[in-house]
Amino acid sequence: MTTAKEVFVHLADYGKEELLNYYRGMLLIRRFEEKVNEMYVKAKIGGYCHLNNGEEACIVGAYSVLGQEDYVFTSYRDHGHALARGVPAKEVMAELFGKVTGCSRGRGGSMHLFDPDRRFMGGHAIVGGHLPLAVGVGLAIRYREGKESVLCSLGEGATNIGAFNESLNLAQLWRLPVVFLCINNQYEMGTPISQTSAQKELYRKAVEFDMASEQVDGTDVLAVRESVLAGLKRAREKSLPTFIEAVCYRLKGHSVIDPGRYRAKDEIERWLLRDPLILFQQRLMDNGVLTEEDHQRMDEAIITEVQEAVDFAEGSPFPDPSSLFDFLYAESREE
Known about the structure:
- This protein is of the alpha/beta class.
- It is built from ten helices and six strands.
- It has one domain (18-260, 305-311): Rossmann fold (3-Layer(aba) Sandwich), CATH 3.40.50.
- It has helices at 16-41, 56-63, 79-84, 89-96, 131-144, 162-173, 221-238, 265-272, 276-286, 292-315, and strands at residues 71-75, 120-124, 150-155, 178-184, 212-217, 242-247.
């Protein structure tokens, strides 16, 4: 059983291009979410909309070690997850606009991004509702004697529901290759986790099931990467699950329309100093991996990419009303 620990990974253990790719991935998520916020305010995006600001290190660190054959499940805060999995920004933005060119063909919106070709098995709106699904895929892999693994990302609020306990219990009991990544942004919807969970260190909840678990700094992309990599190794070599609690901070409200007035100003200011994007940028610059000129070029290219995604979404059609009942049933696949 692994206990909570601090992890500091030396940059020298990574190549320059690899580190710059991680930084670019985090910057893409941040700029994409900033544009999403702008488009929502302009009423280009409807429905519920939840941003990943502050969680970029958790997402990029985790997805950087996945294989193409691995499956991914996540919650409704899923834009950055889709981008990190390789879903084109144009398709993600078009889905948020409800357009037929979106990754879910305009039928899912913000909370239900989906891309089966990339084994991105969706954002899920029901808190914790996707955990049993991830366990089910883990069981299918074990049954078929496959080599794939499952990454199941969840928020801290999901650790208080029954499906959480049931899913972890079966994953350990049946020895399933699932890595549970709890992105603990500390506020569930609008209540601090300290007021809703008797166990404040969430990784300890997995101890009940004799599951390997640990807590990592969710603002450190490399620490998250190493933790998830170890979990995937356990899944692939021993067919055993892992539970990881990545502690970070939600820099925005629960949703775009949430002003977050339940949080103290000084608390927000303290966490802004630990903005994962700024921390990693400074670390790369201090070690000569990234220059200000590099950052400017990268940022300008990403801003252009995100704007092109908006233009693509705006220029795409809505689904034809005649297709309302399409995709209600799965198509049969002959072996």
